[in-house]
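re the bet — no i am not wrong, look at it urself. input seq straight from the record:
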Amino acid sequence: MENVNFELYKVFYYVAKNKNLTRAAEELFISQPAITQSIKKLEEQIGYTLFYRTKHGMNLTKEGEILFNYLKVPIECLQKGKSKIEELFEEKNMILRLGGGTTVLQHNLLDPLQKFRTNHAQIQFIIKHDITKKLLEMLVNDQLDLVILTSLIPTTEEILFIPIEEMHDRFVASVKEFGDYQEKIFSMKDINTLPIVLQENSSSTRSFLDGIATNERTVLSATYELVSYGLVLEFVKAGLGVGFINTNRITKELKSNKLFELKTDFKIPNRHVYVAIHKKNSNNKLLQEFIRYLKKES
């Protein structure tokens, strides 16, 4: 048996897979007569008849079945390899543009991003930090692909909001400095008499808390007003005051009895962390995969 051009084997594989000359021609983007000629040439070169025609299409002979079974695995592996190379090329030229506030970027992005990049090392990321309203405007104007946020701001029907985490905000203090208050039940006015550590007014967490305080007919007076959630937590750990903290982030400190939650006579509703995407990107496979990482489903 002489050496056979691989393209003839490839044509044979597609005809055998589809059992139809027309469908094989469509997949290979060549004419049906060219398909017929290739099969005839392959049969002449190997010395066996590979197909017989029926009213239902092209069926394999015994020899054809043997050849197909040997060709199926390597050809499909080559196809998968080609697809993977194409994906890598696309990812090399792909940029994901993300936005969020300081707190959510620190606590909801870093770990998922690190894990995501182990499977998608070719993708480039541009990360923007700004207030939520500005970031959503950038999303609507196609300047961002995804925004992570903790408050829903009505913008346009073009934006899709997807919850990725439930937040449990509570007033928290150091056991060492404020341990005598562990059994006391506080009103909002009582809390306002303590040294309070809060984020600045422009943050979504501060706006959320001020709304609760307003319902309790109290205007909170911060002893320390800080730019970031991280600083608030460090001041609370140092015993400088009572802070409004997402307890999801301090489970170790609570379990080790370094920090405790103040008991209150008012309810603090849970919030959610959301991702916002443009609805036109809702079927973007790569973006949906990244969201699964943010939701810790991958």
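see?? The mean pLDDT is 88. told u. also The domain at 6-88 is CATH 1.10.10.10 (Arc Repressor Mutant, subunit A). so pay up
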